[in-house]
Amino acid sequence: MIEEVKRIRLLHRRMGTRKLYEMLQSFMIDNQIKMGRDALFDLLAVHGLLVRKKRRTTITTNSKHWFRRYPNLVRGFTPCGINQLWVSDITYWKAKQQFFYISFITDAYSRKIVGYSVAENMESVHCIQALKIALCGLRPQGHFKLTHHSDRAYSIVVIAMYNY
After folding, report:
1. The total number of structural domains that make up the chain
2. Which of 18, 75, 79, 103 could staple 85 via S-S, CB 3.0–4.6 A?
3. Contact, 149 vs 76, CB < 8 A?
4. Domain assignment present for 57
């Protein structure tokens, strides 16, 4: 059985155990081998033949940058109106073979996206562009305090260094 698995893996190096189990059905019938899928998992594990899953995510946060870390001003804070707390983040999506990144700023009270920028890379200029869009839409009425919060990601922290 192990030799047959190795033969198949010569052609399909990354084939997982479930697909391998289906391919081995005729071999097991011909050789009168009765083995379930879970038993095949165990057999491959004993012989070190399990294929590890590839990590399919993109890392968008690097909190180990050299910039100053500011205190978290929003811990325990619940906004009671719009434009009191804006939260920044970056996410991504994959289209065909390319990743696209969206930097966005959300008003924590209304949950409205007040600024965003879509790009093919994670450069900080896109976070700044999202912030500029959010600031352009800001209609302050009298004196108010607005806190802009992020998860300390490198590209977002660069905004703190940007001069308006």
Report:
1. 2
2. 79
3. no
4. no
